[in-house]
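This entry is listed below:
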Amino acid sequence: MTAAKTPAIGSANDNGHFPHAIQSALDARPNSIEAPVLRAWSKREPLDAAMAAHALHRRLRCSDDQPTLSAPKRPDVDVIVDDWKANYPEAVYLPASDRLLDALTRWADEEITPSLLHHS
């Protein structure tokens, strides 16, 4: 297997604190293929990061011959899809996608739920 080309983007969070859901995922698997994506996407708005993770998840799970089931093309997601499919077997990138989606969805929930409760 060759080294992944997914950019390991440095983050202001690298020496600081990550949101709880992301920190938990990084603590559990700090060298996983999804770890650089978690670090990079933690700089986004939580809902945007969760939507990107959902798009990535759908793109990896649906084949190119099923365009109606596939998520819309997103340049940020396309790079990761291409990289993961080129460098890792399905048995590696599908669970990574599951973990990424779970962590970013939990983060969005952690951020959104309190504000919804505060406004109700």
User: Anything to note?
Assistant: The chain is about 60% helix and 0% strand.
